[in-house]
Amino acid sequence: MPKMKTKSGAKKRFKLTASGKVKTGQAGKRHGMIKRTSKQIRNLRGMTVLKDCDAKVVKKKFLPNG
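and the corresponding structure tokens:
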């Protein structure tokens, strides 16, 4: 059998923490910033941890060697 490859798009979007959780960028800051408050924009900075149900799919399908 050939080796499982990591999806190259997932490499750029997700990172695994030391405990195995999946970190990703915050959603909701690509466009439409004019209708968001400054507080909302400020709180959307940085990374967030995915929920377990979503993280399980990402680790199994997209980051098999992660």
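(Above: one complete record from the training split.) The radius of gyration is 15 Å.
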